[in-house]
């Protein structure tokens, strides 16, 4: 996860949700965003 850029991490999260992927995978993405201090909603709006 550490190799992903912030942009790619957020995009991966939104794609995983859209494709209804495993909830555990989505949780991993959310945990990593939280660790980095990224709010996925405000990150996309600010981009």
Core attributes:
single chain, 47 residues, mainly alpha, 3 helices, 72% helix
Description:
This protein has helices at 6-18, 23-36, 40-46. It has 47 residues and is mainly alpha-helical. It is globular and about 25 Å long. The protein starts with 5 loop residues before the first helix and ends with a helix. The longest helix is centred in the middle third of the chain and has 14 residues, at 23-36. The model has no long low-confidence stretch (mean pLDDT 90). This is Sporulation histidine kinase inhibitor Sda. Keywords: Protein kinase inhibitor.
Quick overview of this protein structure:
The chain is an all-alpha fold. Helix content is 72%, strand content 0%.
Task: Give the helix/strand layout.
Blueprint: H1 6-18, H2 23-36, H3 40-46
Helix pairs in contact: 1-2
SS content category: mainly alpha
Largest sheet: none
Strand content: under 5%
Listing every helix as H and every strand as E from the N terminus to the C terminus, the arrangement reads HHH
Pfam family, one: Sda
GO molecular function: protein kinase inhibitor activity
Protein name: Sporulation histidine kinase inhibitor Sda
Keywords: Protein kinase inhibitor
């Amino acid at each position: 996860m550490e190799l992903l850029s912030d942009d790619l991490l957020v995009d991966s999260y939104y794609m995983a949700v859209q494709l209804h992927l495993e909830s555990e995978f989505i949780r991993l993405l959310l945990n990593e965003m939280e660790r980095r201090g990224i709010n996925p909603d405000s990150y996309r709006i600010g981009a």
